[in-house]
Amino acid sequence: MSTLNPAAGSAGLSPGFADPVAQAQACFRAVLDAMARPGRVHTITGVAPPAPLDAATAAVLLTLVDHETPLWLDAALRETAPWLAFHCGAPVVTDPRAAAFAAARGLPDLDRFDAGTHEMPETAATIVVQVQALGVGPRFRLSGPGLREPAGFAVTGLPADFSARWAANHRLFPCGIDLILCAGDRLAALPRSVTIEEDG
Amino acid sequence: MIGYNFAYLDEQTKRMIRRALLKAVAIPGHQVPFGSREMPLPYGWGTGGIQVTASVLGQQDVLKVIDQGADDTTNAVSIRRFFARTAGVRTTTHTADATVIQTRHRIPETKLRDDQIIVYQVPQPEPLFRLEPSRVETRRMHGLADYGLMHVKLYEDIARYGQISISYDYPVMVNGRYLMSPSPIPSFDNPKMDRMPALQLFGAGREKRIYAIPPWTEVRSLDFEDHPFRPINAPHACGLCGATDAYLDEVVTDDRGGRLFVCSDTDHCAERRAAGHVGAEGMKEAAE
Known about the structure:
Oligomer: heterodimer
Distance between the termini of chain B: 49 Å
Strand order of the largest sheet of chain A: 1-9-8-5-4-2-3
Strand content of chain A: 15-25%
Low-confidence stretches of chain B: none
Helix content of chain B: 25-40%
CATH topology of chain A: Rossmann fold
Number of strands of chain A: 10
CATH class of chain A: Alpha Beta
CATH architecture of chain A: 3-Layer(aba) Sandwich
Structural class of chain B: alpha/beta
Low-confidence stretches of chain A: 1-9
Largest sheet of chain A: 7 strands, mixed
């Protein structure tokens, strides 16, 4: 665990949500809709986090993470731990298996995280993955709950073998990891229930 | 609104409920435990639904609340006022105008759209509750998708009564995986849950469980090939608007055996009457 170092001062910290109640609600509704309709892209505005956190990544964490949810950060985002600790109050953990939430630039190994148990699949981790772009790049075909019919989904910044890695995660259902993909101020979600195939 | 956070609940509670909701959506039909709070009304009055509504509601939302289909009964009126006061949101009785609909024991007759959310108040989230009292056991059964007990119950109903004797809270399978209580809606409403365009959220306050059905998800009422599921409704037309495809309430009108069947969905009935539909009772009144 790391806590905010008082010696570092708060002068260097940029603000979180200007209107925490309304902005957290708006962000939650976007994430809820994204989770309910896999692949649908939403735009989140109103927060200017320190680099390398993207606006959407920061908004999702401000909305969902607090002292009850251990947070794991990959090496690329670890420098933003003081900002997240200050605004969310989340304990930052180094063991991915202990994390309820994780944030990373690029997809971490999913099997390093808690995927829940068959009796309590809801304890599985949610990973916020910062990617380069949503809506452009390699195309996938999504099907499953939330989708009227199989839908296309394009994303830049996931590993080349993503659909195989996802299949291993999806096979664990009802256990498994849920992903929230963020790029700039845009986000989309891939719940464990969705089937992903490479398209074309 | 002075003295309250927006929509009554504090932000930390909302975050906890929101996290539970996201997991519930990711695992359709699975009951997610949550830290249900004490609300300014007793358990059994929709505290689960209220906490879910409070956690999703925003300033732009338009809220509709129904109790057994009606907008004007005690539970519906008090919950609507609660959110008008603590969140300052606009409220409506028109299904089509609402963005969030909280319901006790009905699904509106008007088809819901994909930009709407329906929140069900749930007294007993565990569909196996009457068959297996231990939560440790039922949780294991859900984990193993072992629902033989429920099939035996349905079979015994058929053996004893010639039909499945469940008229409300009729158990459903969600996405082919989880057995789920649809809350005590009439079985008439079960088919509306199947592949519904709107997001369906369920809150059980006393039992401290949240669950969800994402849009377009398969929801199948349990049955047997030779005893297919049959939704039950009174074989009448609405006395006020003449509807034959809406769920009907039976109203006793006098002490000489007088009966009136009317739409349980008051908004649906009023809209039909406004559009000129008249039922048998309305015609009688016009003739008098």
